[in-house]
Amino acid sequence: MVLVLTAIVNMGGVVAATTQKSRIVQVMLSALILASLHSVGLWAQAAALEPMTKAQIEENLFGRTLNGEYANGLAWTERLNTDGSSTYVENGKAISGNMRFEGNLLCFRYPGVPSSSGGCFEVWRRSINCFDFYGTEPNTSFDVPLSARRFGQSWTARAWYADQQGTCTTEQIS
Fold first, then answer.
1. At what angle do helices 22-48 and 2-18 cross, to 10 degrees?
2. pLDDT in tens, 74-100
3. What is the largest CA-CA distance in the chain?
């Protein structure tokens, strides 16, 4: 794409130098270049919007402590250990848990806690330090459509590395 844009700019310089209407040609080429950059940017953004794989989740989240919030605004912290154990903290109360994968879904279980706690999540990386979690159960469909997940809408939980500034830039969109 860069080569195409370079060729357009170079061609524009030749055309502009040989025509009486150089200003019009320059404006038209500028518009074409901006439109190309915009569509390339949107294409690249859409192509990158997919859930993380098991390997990506392990590489980016295991061995880390995450701060997060649920869609209702309730804050939490969780340490995701490389051995598959976790420590979840909410309202000052710590709970030990364990993690497993169902395909690319990251599943949490907290023994001794009601079965409504935990669950399986599809994880999407939104920026350098922002991860969205979409809850589901293995082998079931998501309540949130793929189009909404691609645009960061209706997440179940959102998290960031606890030792760094979070880079989540948008609020929950329902």
1. 170
2. 999 999 999 999 999 999 999 999 999
3. 81
